[in-house]
Amino acid sequence: MSDQGTGHDPVRLEEFAELARRTLPREVWDFIEGGSGEELTLAANRAALDRIGIVPRVLVGGTACETATELLGARAALPVAVAPMAYQRLVHPEGELATARAAAAEGVPFTVSTLSSQPVEAVTALGGTTWFQLYCQQDPAATADLVRRAEEAGCAALMVTVDVPSMGRRLRDLRNGFALPSDVTAVHLDPAGNRRAGDRQTGVSAVAEHTAETFARSLSWDDLARLRGETRLPLIVKGILDPGDAATAASLGADAIVVSNHGGRQLDGAVASVDMLRAVREAVPARCRVLVDSGIRSGTDVLKVLALGASGVLLGRPVLWGLAADGGPGVSRVLRLLRTELRSALELSGCSGPADAPWLSVLGAAR
Fold it and tell me: Which tens digits make up the pLDDT trace of 36-69?
């Protein structure tokens, strides 16, 4: 695969974005790339990462640099998992199956969404490490069924998303009157409800309307405690920015926290995820792992968040860029490039692997 505009294969993740943009219909590109409101938080995620500087160490006498680590008890080729992302068949016919196959080949966990357009059983059959992302439903029995289904399919962790009582106002989708094509559905949800997501109306996001009718809007800490008691899987709580919320989640048995503003797709004006990372890490016990997402675009970004105390990152949009550009091979190219970048960043900063990164000093990070 080469970039026809520049005559070379992509050498940075952002170059996959242009390949994807050329490939996808405009409304699909807007759906995966856009944020909520005026997209202030979307921009803030990148600005926050860009202002962080690493202080490299020298003459450390290290051996060959490695990128491998452990994420929630599983060996990973780099401290990265593929983030949960909905309706991947919008960008490629195989959708989540192509992405999961590539993630397994490259040795990183793949998170299958409640809003996946391919079934979790087909994903886990590919043999990689699979986490299941849960949106709690208005019907508690339906939520319990999803949890059991994930367990029976062989998922290695359960990731509950807690920052979507309703979907943020994504203005690109409203302007486009975005709706799903008839051949793309959330296969884990009720088929009758799925029809709402394909009901195109001017000035309305049918996907947001479907979400409003399906997801629980009144979750509480009691619900999280109940979920902890109902599953044997490691529990990841995604969508936390406040350190007090992180501490409460950990006290209720969360095994990991994902510091996340949903990639700038929920509350516009929310703080950048990386700006809350250090405070969240300090608020939870060492046993509780801390991951981060929103705006990660390079191996250097990964090194920055590792230096701030994260165990790893969830990678979102760049994976979809690779999927749109070249299916599973495109996703593999994205992950391999990220691994190359991370290895270089680790080596040039004086680290022999991800475990050394917390010893680095960083400037410009929020306290």
Answer: 999 999 999 999 999 999 999 999 886 789 999 9
297: Cβ contacts below 8 Å, ≥ 6 apart: 13, 14, 46, 49, 318
CB 99 within 8 A of CB 110: yes
Lookup result for tokens 């947001």: 208
Q: Is 304 annotated as a binding residue?
A: no
How many other CB atoms sit within 10 Å of the CB of residue 130?
24
Q: Is 365 annotated as a binding residue?
A: no
* Side-chain half-sphere CA neighbours of 147 within 13 A: 22
Handedness of CA 237, 103, 344, 352 (dihedral sign): positive
The single-letter code of the amino acid at 323 is L
- How large a percentage of the chain has pLDDT more than 90? 87
Q: What angle do CA 325, 328, 330 make, to 5 degrees?
A: 40
- The 3-state DSSP class for residue 225 equals helix
For the cut 70, the answer to whether the pLDDT of residue 2 exceeds it is no
Domains along the sequence of the chain with CATH: 34-55+108-165+215-315 (3.20.20.70), 166-213 (no CATH)
- Phi-psi region at 96: left, alpha or beta (left = phi > 0; alpha = psi -120 to 50): alpha
Sign, CA torsion 25/31/35/36: positive
User: Is the per-residue pLDDT at 7 higher than 80?
Assistant: no
267, 133, 138, 261 alpha-carbon torsion, rounded to 10°: -10
- Rg of the Cα atoms in the chain: 19
At residue 239's C-alpha, the angle toward residues 238 and 243, to 5°, is 105
Q: Which of 341, 296, 358 is nearest to 321 (CA)?
A: 296
Beta bridge partners of 289: 256
CB 345 within 8 A of CB 78: no
**List 92, 188, 210, 262, catalytic entry:** 262
Say whether 262 is catalytic: yes
CB atoms within 10 A of CB 222: 9
* 200 known ligand binder: no
Average pLDDT for 203-213: 84
